[in-house]
Amino acid sequence: MVLQLLEKRRLVVFFPSVHIFASVAKRFSCPSYLRIATRAHRTNSPMDKVYFRNDSHSEELHINFRYVNADLKLDREFNFSRRMSEKIEDVLTRIRGNIEKEIFKKAKKGKNKSLPQESELLPKPLVDGKIEFLRGEQKLADITFIDMLGDTTDSLNLKILDRNFQVVINQPWVVNLAMPTNILAGFTVYPAKLEMQFAEKSYCKGSWFKARMPASGNLKQVKVWSYCGDGLSYNTCNEDIDYFLKLVLIPGNSQGQFGPSVEQISKREVQVGPGPCPFETRHCFTKQRLRDNSWRIVSYNILADLYADTDYSRTHLFPYCPAYALKADYRKQLIIKEILGYNADIICLQEVDVKFFNFDLQHILEDDQQAFKGLLAQKGICGEGVATFYNVKRFDLLETRNFNIGENIRVLTIFRDLWQKIQTNEKLAERICDRSTTLQLTLLKMKECEHYLLVANTHLYFHPDADHIRLLQFGLSMLYIEDMYRKLIKQLNLNEENQLAVVFSGDFNSVPECGIFRLMTEGFVEDDFIDWRSNTEEALAGVSLKQPFRMQSACGTPQYTNFTHAFAACLDYIFYQSDRLDVEQVVPLPALEELKSHIAIPSVVFPSDHVALVADLRFKLISQNAK
């Protein structure tokens, strides 16, 4: 009787509103993304196809389909995790059983009087023999999914009752889509998480909608969502305040294929923003992008979330900052807006959380409009590091290196002389080698001219008694840069050495009076300099440093680049090769009154305890250099 009822109704099986997918990976080693349940509802899927996802690195088979039957008031997504080595009959039996279970569940509630009682149906299978795989007209039986998918998927169909569904392999698919928990008016909103397979962001289609919470308190009952805009991100405005946002996303790829759409609704409505932020005033100096020989560089310690959102940070480091303004979902909106407004060509960031790099910075900066490419150098096993972004419309990447200073002091021959002096002090040697400080080097070639940039980015050790450690780290970095520079001159076969310039940006945790600034701007630090004695037990004698480049600080020595209630000083610099480059503009830093407007930073309008350095540089004409 139930079989007859089902055959009279139209069974809806599609991907992913009704979808089936398969994923193949190494035995007993399933990638974590295959275990993540999609956090969004799939909509508008074709009703004549069934989709398999086949990852060559997995042996697990993940099956998902959504069964829709309007007459039975059944709309349910089913999920199965099986083995590719299983017989296809095992999976079909499980599918039948789960569909039966849901129908019986509906009947048990007494909502559908037309269905017989469960007790009458249990002896007979509900849809026995009506779910099967076919290749052409031939029924497939007594084979595994490995066998079924091994040769070809041509003419492969899944038959459910009286309908055939074409099996389609490796269509674009959204694995995980999540919205941020905090959305501010006047800032950019984008998915907090977006994980896809067989899809590329630049080929995906996104549409944004908004609606107020209905009286029922159930957003699923909203019948009309107002259109806001297209794209994978949306710039909110004051008119969006108190509205919930919905993103409808269609995954696509470069082959012109599109997978089923998914949608996700924000958990909270759009909130009132913090009002004007001081960095917006700075944006007045960077409204236009540069061109030809000129380029803009930003150096910015953005304050890693693993340091900002802790009990210690809230009670000791930044007790003046409201707890909500230390949350990642709040701060990252300000950071993104600030960085975008500088219209930079090169962005050097420090204290970059790995998750923030993967899900936020890359998502926004690497889209077609911004056209950046990002490189992350993680500090050992730490969850943060330094990152360099360059504009692919202006630069070609020739080489990148991530260099852990502590791990390489004993190894590289270019450090041999300095290491021999360091290792005589056991405590010093152990301390500097245990540091995870990383030097990131990026070699870029300008597209508009025959000029090359060697961009260095780092974040040196922070401890107050470690001026000697930082100076050594910096001296080792300069030895490495000098060695690489000399090799590049030959490797690039440059007609003029002036075609290659060095820029070194970062948070050096060092004030201008210390040895790092002297080494860079004067080229030499003597063996009796005070930094060598910053820690009595680790004091160094007979060590001097030198470097061969003519370097200057592009932004000079501002009074503050770091400003908290307990400490404020100039710690960040953009050092540039002054015989190769000219400074065209330095974007003014925030005034002291702005930094103190909420006691110190970070605050509701400053997302970090550091301020960004922004400078416009240009290559000198080769004839000028010759003079």
From TrEMBL:
Named cofactor requirement(s): Mg(2+)
Keyword Glycosyltransferase among record annotations: no
Single GO biological process annotation from the record: mRNA processing
Protein name: 2',5'-phosphodiesterase 12
Chief location of this protein within or outside the cell: mitochondrion
A GO cellular component annotation in the UniProt record: mitochondrial matrix
Pfam families with a match to the protein in the record: Exo_endo_phos, PDE12-like_N
Sequence ranges assigned to domain 2',5'-phosphodiesterase 12-like N-terminal in this UniProt record: 172-267
Residues in Endonuclease/exonuclease/phosphatase domain copies: 299-610
Native source species: Glossina morsitans morsitans (Savannah tsetse fly)
Alphabetized GO MF terms: metal ion binding; poly(A)-specific ribonuclease activity
Localisation per UniProt entry: Mitochondrion matrix
Keywords noted in UniProt: Exonuclease, Hydrolase, Magnesium, Metal-binding, Mitochondrion, mRNA processing, Nuclease, Phosphoprotein, Transit peptide
The organism's place on the tree of life at top rank: Eukaryota
